[in-house]
Amino acid sequence: MNISDVMIHINESLSEEARSALENAMRKIEGVVTPRFNAGKEHLLLIAYDTEKTNTAVLLEKARAAGYTAQLIGM
Q1: Which of 33, 54, 58, 75 can pair with 48 through a Cys bridge, CB separation 3.0 to 4.6 Å?
Q2: Are 25 and 61 spatial neighbours (Cβ–Cβ below 8 Å)?
Q3: For residues 9 and 71, is the Cβ–Cβ distance under 8 A?
Q4: What is the mean pLDDT of the chain?
Q5: Side-chain half-sphere CA neighbours of 33 within 13 A
Q6: Looking at beta carbons, which pairs linking 38-44 to residues 24 or more positions away fall under 8 Å?
Q7: 33: phi > 0 → left, psi -120 to 50 → alpha, else beta; which?
Q8: Cβ atoms within 10 A of the Cβ of 73, count?
Q9: CATH classification code of 3-73
């Protein structure tokens, strides 16, 4: 197992319910360990994931498929 982190910026303002739903959707991706938004930074989704099972393109596409405008940070 090789754990890495990625940060995804979500352009839209998300309610607490929408953030929770997106975190839950990310958890369904094989290899995702911990997706989370931090208080005060509701536009930034930090995801810890296993690079042997998934990749940043899959994670970004999941956010976009949920209907959000999203970009990887630091890539």
Answers
A1: 33
A2: no
A3: yes
A4: 96
A5: 13
A6: 42/13, 42/14, 43/9, 43/10, 43/11, 43/13, 43/14, 44/7, 44/8, 44/9, 44/10, 44/73
A7: alpha
A8: 13
A9: 3.30.70.100
Query: Percent of the chain, pLDDT > 90?
Result: 93
Q: What angle (nearest 5°) sits at the alpha carbon of residue 14, between those of residues 35 and 61?
A: 55
* Residue ranges covered by each domain of the chain: 3-73
Burial class (CB in 10 A: 0-12, 13-18, 19+), 13: exposed
Confidence of residue 1 (pLDDT cuts 50, 70, 90): confident
Helices (H), 3-70: 16-27, 56-65
pTM, full prediction: 0.92
